[in-house]
User: Which sequence fits this backbone?
């Protein structure tokens, strides 16, 4: 019966053609380039990973009956009367290698979670999803058993909520398939984004994390001190903080390099403990000199996401996520059980998200804030939608409004531009040839989530920026270095910021942002 | 006379063949891939950078008399009676584009430091170092003049010490050629290192920066607090610190993914204000599962550096550094005047450094600590060298010893392995089959600098690590999550750490580490 079920067409069968599937028998996802670098033959190569072995078996480098050694952890063991099977994983890819023990007594010591080194004969399996298995006829080496025999491995195959894993096993949870896959997705995402910026002539920079000013003036900053600090003495000779955004420093770097980007941690001492907030998160920010058009910045954002998502899909990342979602859905278990159990993201949703990013017929929709208000008000008047919060011109868009604009109106990503000035920070450029009621800015909204990216042109005129800083009531002396960037040879410019974990949540189909980062930190939580 | 001098063979002429030089007329260094990505033709392309224009003129995409628009800053202006010249740079590469004004009155407003948009006719210049110039016959647009007419641009062409720039112009110093070049070098280095790890099957990870334990127990950590903190309440419900090394967390990630690496900031509240110390710096760290041989880890380090340095040299980075060094040397001015003026790194030294990394005949030298002591003591006995500090078996190698071992004994990079246990942290694996007097660790030493990388195998046995933590006198409860990594399916493993700014100093020929990072932080210094 179970076999029968698994042979029905799955969602991933439907979205990928047969030929595409044949290729994906070779793991492409991590180490998708698969050529271990040896610059000098005398240097010692690492042993092959599970991914290496599957790759080599898939492309014919390893032949039937080759002697193969695999290192990894036992994911499951199945013992029959005569023979036994064990699934071995090492996290280099999601796929496992099956060991087939011709004498089940050889496998008697094997338990889930132990680490092994196993040598056997390669068996090519052309009719199955994985390209090979390993036939074992002599005892294999258990490298790491349970250190305390009475304490069984806590990550048995049964389903556990993410919330339970975070609380009880914050340093072990990467050993589950779903969490390891999110970490590989992060890595692949960084690679693809880096390639985009490198090929587009941007310099990757490292703005400081410790700063001497609370730049956005929001007050939600962490302060830094050392053991030598006291009432009179401070380590840096002044108050110092963890950065909330690298934008201001990035503008300084842009004045030297024209096009700059960074992927760095940022920190916010927010007291919210929701599924959307982290106190430590990674932020991708970019600044571009010599542009007077917001469209330039929106085009960069759109190309960055289109390029990266296309590349990640080609590397098999979407297929991988869908497979794991199907595994969980089959078990009628939600990934995000526990505190957010009603907020599960389905495989079908994830596929829609990816495809709406890379649909190739036309650019994503762009409308102004004023148009967005009209659209929302008309929809309410037409009884197309009921919102909890009223839609008021001149007020911030609420999360429900943003989600409706992307999900129902645009049915995909949508840029909302030119928000009222009073909603936005001091450094944004007023819309030219107007009385300054709006600024040249945008938010990129996506279905299910709302804001993914925010950007703007920056005020580049010395005198006008000086006035804007004074009007904002911020500490002008702390910002004098920033103002001075406009003193000699200022240039029109703009940039954007994207919460990296938000992108990972969106692409990975993860609802709670705490699953998108290895060691999440939020109020009252700093495990390990 | 001056022309005569500049036609003598330069150092870079000597190291590069004629054909190689011909290629380097096209800027290869940043945006060395040079294909601006357009995923959808309706999206708006950014204007060409200086680098784009030079590249297209060099490869024939732009022809003689093409109309070309260049954006950038004026580096210098030279006015003659009839015609005038201006050098335009935008930081996309070190090279500039020369504007030729057929009527010098058109250039009358131009001053060093102003930003311009200039349109003219491309002139291909096959006999000169740069592939083209732009002939200007109509007035050009000054985008950003001096905001305050009385305040002249501070970065005029005359030489300024780095110390002066840091102190007086911490946010403007990226506009100098030398500092912009170091930032491009950082970016290229990150690209090449990332490619190495990606192709070698490593997952790039992001361990936390805020931690709940002072892991190395050295006490030189920064503490974190928020505005809600008081005597009873802490934001995270416990003390929290900025990480000094991500290694312990990286080992947790390795248990899920086998091969992991990271490039993240690390922080040390060191009171030293030397040319070697920063309070905020970037660290590259990696961990590898399933290895019992230190040679595996050393081989990864060697391959990583060989691969990256080779790739960077091919991209023209060494040539670029040498050119800028020659420029400064010609002016008989040192890059590191001021506090470290005696410690200038010459172009010849930089060339030697790069070549010693990529010499392809055999692996770098490896000797044990015990052998190093013998070698040093023999050299002293032979009067080959005199040290300030005596060479004592069982004592740490001093910087002068390290520099001599790399510079005079190995004449290149050298690994020193198996230091006495008492010098090293608790987590290192004792050398097998010995009484535990030494540990399986290495330092990679390089000429002029000393330690560049440090690594080791880690103790992977639960009971032995437990004893080691207790012996070290550290807080066992704060490390319980780390110890637990050895509880189920532990694996032999090892890893290494490299100070990213140290590598940049070494490859860039920068003596003072404060020049290797955009916004250096050290005791009493936190500008911007």
Assistant:
């Amino acid at each position: 019966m179970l076999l029968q079920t698994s042979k029905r067409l799955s969602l991933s069968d439907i979205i990928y053609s047969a030929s595409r599937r044949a290729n994906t028998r070779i793991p492409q996802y991590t180490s998708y380039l698969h050529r271990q670098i040896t610059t000098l033959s005398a240097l010692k190569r690492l042993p092959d990973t599970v991914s290496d072995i599957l790759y080599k078996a898939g492309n014919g480098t390893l032949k039937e009956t080759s002697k193969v050694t695999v290192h990894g952890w036992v994911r499951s063991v199945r013992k029959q009367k005569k023979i036994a099977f064990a699934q071995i994983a090492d996290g280099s890819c999601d796929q496992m290698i099956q060991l087939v023990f011709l004498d089940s007594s050889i496998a008697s010591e094997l338990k889930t979670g132990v680490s092994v080194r196993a040598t056997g004969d390669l068996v090519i399996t052309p009719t199955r999803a994985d390209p090979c298995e390993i036939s074992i006829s002599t005892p294999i080496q258990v490298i790491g058993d349970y250190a305390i025999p009475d304490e069984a491995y806590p990550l048995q195959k049964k389903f556990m909520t993410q919330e339970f894993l975070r609380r009880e096993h914050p340093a072990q949870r990467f050993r589950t398939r779903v969490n390891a896959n999110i970490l590989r997705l992060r890595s692949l995402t960084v690679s693809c984004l880096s390639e985009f910026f490198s090929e587009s002539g941007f310099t990757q920079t490292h703005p400081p994390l410790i700063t001497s000013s609370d730049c956005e003036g929001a007050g939600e900053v962490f302060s830094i001190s050392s053991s030598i600090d006291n009432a009179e003495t401070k380590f840096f000779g002044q108050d110092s903080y963890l950065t909330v955004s690298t934008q201001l420093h990035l503008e300084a770097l842009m004045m030297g390099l024209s096009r700059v980007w960074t992927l760095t941690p940022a920190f916010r001492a927010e007291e919210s403990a929701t599924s959307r907030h982290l106190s430590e998160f990674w932020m991708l920010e970019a600044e571009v000199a010599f542009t007077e058009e917001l469209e330039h910045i929106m085009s960069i954002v759109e190309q960055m996401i289109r390029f990266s998502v296309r590349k990640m899909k080609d590397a098999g990342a979407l297929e991988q996520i869908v497979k794991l979602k199907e595994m969980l859905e089959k078990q009628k278990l939600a990934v995000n059980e526990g505190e957010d159990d009603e907020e599960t993201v389905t495989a079908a949703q994830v596929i829609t998200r990816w495809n709406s990013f890379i649909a190739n017929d036309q650019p994503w929709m762009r409308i102004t804030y004023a148009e967005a208000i009209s659209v929302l008000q008309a929809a309410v008047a037409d009884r197309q939608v009921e919102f909890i919060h009223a839609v008021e011109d001149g007020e911030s868009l609420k999360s429900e409004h943003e989600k409706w604009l992307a999900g129902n109106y645009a049915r995909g990503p949508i840029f909302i531009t030119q928000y009222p000035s009073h909603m936005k920070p001091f450094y944004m450029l007023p819309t030219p040839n107007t009385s300054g009621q709006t600024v040249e800015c945008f938010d990129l909204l996506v279905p299910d989530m709302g804001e993914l990216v925010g950007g703007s042109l920056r005020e580049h005129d010395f005198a006008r920026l000086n006035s804007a800083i004074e009007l904002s009531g911020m500490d002008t002396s702390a910002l004098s270095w920033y103002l001075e960037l406009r003193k000699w040879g200022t240039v029109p410019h703009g940039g954007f910021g994207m919460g990296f974990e938000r992108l990972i949540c969106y692409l990975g189909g993860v609802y709670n942002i705490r699953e998108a980062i290895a060691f999440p930190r939020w109020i009252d939580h700093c495990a390990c």
Observations:
- Confidence is low (pLDDT under 50) at residues 1-25, 28-33, 334-340 of chain B.
